[in-house]
Amino acid sequence: MAPLRSAAASWHSRWCQVLLFGVLALLQGQVLAFAGRSGVLPQAPLAASRSAFLGRFTHQQKWRPPSSSAAAATTCRMITIEQASNDQIEEVASFFVDSFWGAGTLLKEGQRRQLLTEQRRDLRERYGELIVPRKLPSALLVARSAGGDMVGCVGVEVVVCEGERVGVKYKGQGANDPELRPLLSNLAVSPTVRRKGIGQKLVRACEAKVKSWGYAELLLLVNETNSPARRLYSKLGYKDLFTNTSGTTVEVTSFQIRNSPCTTVCMRAGLAPRGLFSFFAR
Ligand SMILES: *[C@@H]1O[C@H](CO)[C@@H](O)[C@H](O)[C@H]1NC(C)=O
Ligand SMILES: *[C@@H]1O[C@H](CO)[C@@H](O)[C@H](O)[C@H]1NC(C)=O
After folding, report:
1. Which site in 57, 67, 177, 182 is 20 to 30 Å from 193, CA atoms measured?
2. pLDDT digits (tens, 9 = 90+) for 215-248
């Protein structure tokens, strides 16, 4: 495992909460090397609880005639989900920023650039292969329309947890009863195709991935005040596990992008084992 720099620890821990859900940068050394090479230098952390994302789906959505459930089903059926390669991280980062924070409507160009820099770095750390493959499994999944357009994305990774601390930077020493658990993060769906089950499909794809890694649960972190997101997750079988009152969230205002404190809820679903009894175990 690469040595971790304590200097980077603070923004990392904020990023945990921040980005949608969660955390961990086992490949810090490689990230810095990569960032240096590409001219993207780690600077002041941009906190972000992307937990908001699902809430924004509802709030920022323009009015459209309600689609019939048949039409919604058709759309979702035609969506394919694939694992993004390292080379596609840039495309996913760009998609995420535009879908999550609004395509140019809310964001000033400078803000978009700042968010993109942070998003790119976060995705590379969590799901990218920089110099060597990650030691713990991770995957970045994208949903594409029949025409090949990206319409959704989500990441899933195995992180180190110590009790209620999800995604701690494990240095091999001083860790208090560490365990490995899978964490879902960075879920976003394009504003044009929301509420058609694509988010659900992405979550289910993460669950399948996690099971293929041999885990029987999936965690995620969500802003406590983001009721639409929490409702969706609870509909999908996720239950509140614990709450962190010292989380942070990224707030984009017309003047700035800033960290704000927020309470984060960790939700968990047990995953049915594959095979004969999976129906009953769910
Ligand atoms: C709560 O969140 C903060 C900010 O990310 C983190 O540093 C801290 O370890 C978390 N605490 C627990 C108990 O999870
Ligand atoms: C997340 O939490 C912060 C602080 O409580 C709040 O201001 C913000 O509106 C929340 N976002 C959503 C979408 O719930």
Report:
1. 182
2. 999 999 999 998 888 998 999 999 999 999 999 8
From the CA of 153, how far away is ligand 1's center (Å)? 25
**Å from CA of 13 to ligand 1 middle:** 7
Q: Which amino acid is at 181?
A: R
Contact 183, 155 (CB under 8 A): no
Helices (H), the chain: 9-18, 28-38, 53-60, 69-77, 89-101, 109-127, 198-212, 227-235, 278-281
Distance, CA 18 to ligand 1 centroid (Å)? 11
Grade residue 121 by pLDDT with cuts at 50, 70 and 90.
very high
Q: For residue 20, which ligand has an atom nearest its CA?
A: 2
- Domain boundaries 6-281, corresponding CATH code: 3.40.630.30
> pTM for this structure?
0.72
Q: What is the pLDDT of residue 259?
A: 84
207 in helix, strand or coil? helix
Report residue 58 as tokens: 């509802």
